[in-house]
């Protein structure tokens, strides 16, 4: 049984992500943020648990366009992320990445990817480098259930297997790939089972339990660091929002969203903490503090100057 | 029976697909989210219901989509595959360049691959670098492929049908900013024309402006503004970048003596360069060096303010047209295009 303090830390991390996404929703509705935005509401336990298990001073995470949560869990300051989404000069990539393609290498986060599956071979490459540089680095490639059908992911897994690369393949199985259920796009919907065909371990884990994710990723990382090669973790979760802001989710059957809301990780951990003796007042204090931090970060980013167009041609080449 | 309907661009594409599925039983329509959900942009709405198993959703597997289209086409189907963003075709480029384009040639006509790839491209506010590219030059570089960029509602209907009816692989590049941006009268049910052929969108005397894709709406805006300054630009929509309708371009340039090519794609290595080269090779006399307007060497940044600084705007296009027209001195003679740098009044132009 983990200590209450560790669970409180998980709750704080998940709430920071949720609060951030809710503020993003407001900024998008107000027209301050423009373009496609993929929220991660409901999937926060994965980022929180995984990042708690990694050593982000040397490990490398490769998420997808649904990456705000990963970036925050890696420790990037919310202000620099808001600024990025708002196209401000102070954005973590000066506005060049935006919501769907930002990168935070100073925090162990080596880039969202808006090409489905593209991060998996790159993560394998980061792991390949680790086999030569003595860093002990583990690379974690995160991608969705739908990405399991992308050729690049298959190639990355076999490549990692034959070279025993220290990489963790983490599937965020939220049951949908955009508007299409994953169950309609695979014959075997227990995706972790593919690992055995490549010759490495695979497991299905509770992706709405940050502590379960932490333990699984910690074990996978330990194994990878020891030279035993990759692992495939299938974290079961659900998004409680659309694929992107504006998605009306007509494709979700009746009751699906309600079930997802009942199982979402923040409510669940809150109930667990209360059962363990935490007080509602204590939890309210935590969430209010995080909300203030997020509101402050957003307000500061909004007041920052826009990215300077005169710099737009810089950094194409060395 | 030909009829006219008031449709959005997306509905015009949908109407062409419906007609193809109805008239050509060998057609198939597939891609990610294309079937049951009706497409991420709603373009294929209702078609699954109407045509059943010939319209279906695929896994996120572009190699399987495009390779599957090649194989099915060789075996008598006429697949219409959707690649949601042109950027995503790159994960399966092999199936177009090394596979589809070779089928007819290597078999000396014994086999063919009559497939259509529908995709869409370009920047829209906030889109990231991997969802913003204009890649027509990559496709157009490949002999064996044909490439069009319908930019009007009517062309969204007509060119798609020409593509589907064509017995070779055709890439139809749409633009998501057009899908739901208003309705127009569209003639449906007319004759399906063979591929190729440019269209004059605005006749003019002073300068030929060749363009294609959604950027032409900015070109037309620029041309309308310049008309107030006494500059009469002829705007030609290439519509097809392979095959390029060079005859139409040359005929216009022979009259105007000036050429501006404007596209959203990067200038370097773009189809605009090909047009300039072809005009130079044809030896058409020009009054002024030809001008390319495109996106400079940069990745496409997500911040709208940054992207706006690199994607050609109506202002930038108008400026290029103006420079081209004003570059003519009072006593200037027609010059041969190979003699550009010998023309003093063009010095300083960029
Ligand atoms: C190569 C490629 N094909 C298609 C897309 C369009 N696309 C973006 S997200 C997405 C669905 C991905 O589903 P999944 O992998 O389950 O991740 P989720 O969005 O559910 O997190 C698709 C098809 C893309 N970005 N890249
Ligand atoms: Mg998914």
UniProtKB/TrEMBL annotation, chain A:
Keywords, ordered alphabetically: Oxidoreductase, Pyruvate, Thiamine pyrophosphate
Domain Dehydrogenase E1 component: start-end pairs: 13-309
Listed GO MF terms: magnesium ion binding; pyruvate dehydrogenase (acetyl-transferring) activity
Gene Ontology terms: biological process: pyruvate decarboxylation to acetyl-CoA
Pfam families: E1_dh
Cofactors that this protein relies on: thiamine diphosphate
Superkingdom field: Bacteria
Name of the protein described by the UniProt record: Pyruvate dehydrogenase E1 component alpha subunit
Automatic annotation (TrEMBL), chain B:
Top-rank lineage group of the source organism: Bacteria
Secretion signal span: none
Alphabetically ordered keywords of this record: Oxidoreductase, Pyruvate, Thiamine pyrophosphate
Cofactor: thiamine diphosphate
Domain Transketolase-like pyrimidine-binding: start-end pairs: 7-181
Pfam families associated with the record: Transket_pyr (PF02779), Transketolase_C (PF02780)
CDD domains found in the cross-reference section: TPP_PYR_E1-PDHc-beta_like
Example of a GO MF term: magnesium ion binding
Protein's name in the database: Pyruvate dehydrogenase E1 component beta subunit
